[in-house]
Design brief:
Helices cover about 40% and strands about 25% of the residues. The protein starts with a helix and ends with a strand.
Length: about 325
């Protein structure tokens, strides 16, 4: 077993989380997989896996080695494919992360379409409303909303999106809708809780285009935007969401927007990947696919409803 075979074996172990599962998939004895792992750890002088009676988990050294193995094997495959201009079909693993709601509604269907074009590619879609470390987690590309904070990464803007303040009709029936952003301080606002930084400051623009913030609060927070949306649908409170996530619910009347005459700053969607090197063929193809297919919904919800001859689901105050 050469070094590249060892890397493939280690990535398989990390992906499946079980030595016996790897052995079954490869059609070899479990002792063969165990011996291969032991040889790697002996040669590297570190433990790559923490073993317990129930599960295997990567050590910090194992996490770093996994990311390095993925990068090296990707570079090798793309170098061989490009020799002499013979690019050939795309192959290999592409790890993509996105927020929970957006990932389910928008990214997962795009992954289906991308894999139909490139059947040799495998995609691992990691959904999280937290900000994952792309380098430590071995992520190829993250689809993130908002500004880029990590200088080790490169951000490519895909589209800009609108945000909307909304709640269920049952909530507005019990609580007078806000007429100005400051009125939100009297409402039960459902807040997305990122690690160490709950999003309790909601941004608006005044008539002169200046951005100002309103500090909101409520009786619950969650680190999953889908949970906040479910609570809002149940009438628990007010949410601030991208139109990506709630357009269909606004169109159906399950959620009703407020403060529509106040402009909320747009939020940019970026495709974020590691800086300092050109994306490989597989990632470049996926980014081009996003550019072509990942568009904002055509028109506003209100415009769609007017075209359909229905009453707009909005509290225009």
């Amino acid at each position: 077993m050469d070094r590249f075979d060892e890397m493939e074996l280690f990535l398989d172990i990390a992906r499946r989380g079980s030595l016996s599962a790897v052995a079954r998939a490869r059609g070899v004895a479990p002792s063969t997989v165990t011996l291969g792992l032991q040889r790697m750890e002996a040669r590297l002088g570190v433990r790559l896996l923490a073993r317990s009676t129930r599960r295997l988990s990567l050590t910090p050294e194992g996490e770093g080695y996994r990311a390095d193995c993925q990068r090296i094997l990707t570079d090798l495959a793309e170098s061989e494919a490009g020799v002499g201009g013979r690019e050939g079909p795309l192959t290999g693993l592409l790890r993509v992360t996105a927020t929970n709601d957006f990932g389910r509604a928008r990214v997962a269907p795009l992954v289906d379409a991308f894999l139909q074009l490139h059947p040799g590619v495998r995609v691992e879609l990691v959904l999280s409303d937290g900000v994952l470390d792309l380098i430590e987690e071995g992520i190829d590309v993250a689809l993130r909303f908002g500004p880029l904070a990590d200088s080790r990464l490169t951000a490519r803007r895909i589209v800009s999106g609108r945000r909307v303040v909304c709640a269920a009709p049952a909530y507005w029936a019990r609580n007078p809708p806000p007429r100005k952003p400051a009125d939100l301080t009297r409402h039960n606002c459902l807040v997305l809780a990122r690690p160490g930084a709950p999003q309790t400051s909601w941004a608006f623009r005044d008539e002169d285009g200046r951005v100002f913030h309103v500090r909101v609060s409520g009786d619950r927070t969650a680190n999953d935007g889908g949970v906040l949306k479910d609570w809002a649908l149940a009438g628990a409170g007010v949410i601030l969401k991208s139109t990506w996530d709630v357009e269909a619910l606004l169109a159906s009347g399950h959620l009703v927007s407020a403060l529509d005459r106040f402009t909320l700053p747009d939020i940019d969607l970026h495709a974020v990947h590691t800086a300092g090197r050109e994306p490989g063929r597989r990632l470049a193809a996926f980014l081009a696919f996003l550019d072509e297919h990942l568009h904002l919904p055509p028109g506003s919800v209100g415009a769609r409803r007017r075209r359909a001859g229905r009453k707009s689901s909005s509290l225009g105050v």
